[in-house]
Amino acid sequence: MKKEKILIVGNNISSNALAKKLKESEFCSEIFIAGNGDIESDFKTVDIRENNCEELLKFVLDNGISLTIPFCAKSLNAGVGDFFNSNEQKVFSPDKSSSIPFLNGVHGKKLLYRINSGTSKFGVFDKINLANDFLDDCKFPVIVKTSDVCADKVLCPTKKFASEIIYNMLEIQNVSEILIEEYTFGHKFSVYFITDGYGVLPITTFKEYKFEKDSDCAMLTDGMGGYCPDYKISEEILAKTVEIAKNIINSLSKKNSVYMGFFGIEFNLDKDEILSAEEIFPFIRNHCAESVLNSTEVDLIDLINACISGYFADDYEIIKTNDLYYISVLLKNKNNNKNIVLCESAKTLNRAKNNLILELETYKNYSYRKDILK
Fold this sequence. Notes:
Layout: E1 4-9, H1 13-23, E2 28-34, E3 44-46, H2 53-62, E4 67-70, H3 73-77, H4 80-86, H5 96-103, H6 105-114, E5 122-125, H7 128-135, E6 142-146, E7 153-156, H8 159-172, E8 178-182, E9 187-195, E10 200-208, E11 218-220, E12 225-228, H9 235-253, E13 261-269, E14 275-282, H10 286-294, H11 300-309, H12 312-315, E15 325-333, E16 339-346, H13 349-360, E17 366-367
Parallel strand pairs: 1-2, 1-4, 2-3
Antiparallel strand pairs: 5-8, 6-7, 6-8, 7-11, 9-10, 9-13, 10-12, 12-15, 13-14, 15-16, 15-17
Helix pairs in contact: 1-10, 5-6, 7-8
């Protein structure tokens, strides 16, 4: 296989982690990152908007790029993968239609319901009175959120608080529709997968920490850090998560909708070890990316080419990982609010935590979720 000249579309923390992992491959020649990110990158950056298909294609043709990897929501919404495929360019990307349930929480929740994933009770509303009627039959707390999977979620302990949030979203913010779901209690974790649009393999489990403000309504983000693998997840439970992931991809492929790429699923495991899928999302989240990718012991370019070329199922039965624990934390600069992610690893989780604590001592101007290190 010849060496690849690669363009990653999306200049963010996770795309830079992907670039670092790709650079380790013997098949990597050069890497460019396109997009208007506000982070410092170690790679050559290209000032082209992530949704500008024509300009991205022109750059690829003018610079001899042999592999393009859209790695942000804007590029998927713009259909970069479809556009490149129609112009006979090698691209590792979902098509636009398959990415919808991964980018839109309402569509994602409906898909999880259709495949009988055990997802929590939910409702979708565009009118305040109907949303409040739904609350009458809910078990509290509930989560209220918009359809954007990247947006923060509000955990509401009572109907009064939930009603206030619903009014604010639908009436003040003019959100077109909201999703309300019952909060499930238990052990929450994510699993990351890779797929060629037909076969699915797990990469690793990740225990995330959700940020919660000290208020009556807790704001839940995608995560402020965490560790992998999650030692509480048995092989039996992991196998069940894989079946759910396969059902998702199969459901899409039956509609001639091909999701090729990385994706994650948030799960809940209750006290009786009953598993439920809570949310699906594309790519690898910023606070997870370096940990997840570094845990693998595969040539990532070969793996990606296997997905594109159709020999993924033949060449890969598992995604081999190492025997290290990885822990990462999202840091916010107190001066400019810009985020960075620190990641450390060791043979044990405690050692990885201690390594991270030592590194954090040099970041005096940054805030972070301290209970990650407990």
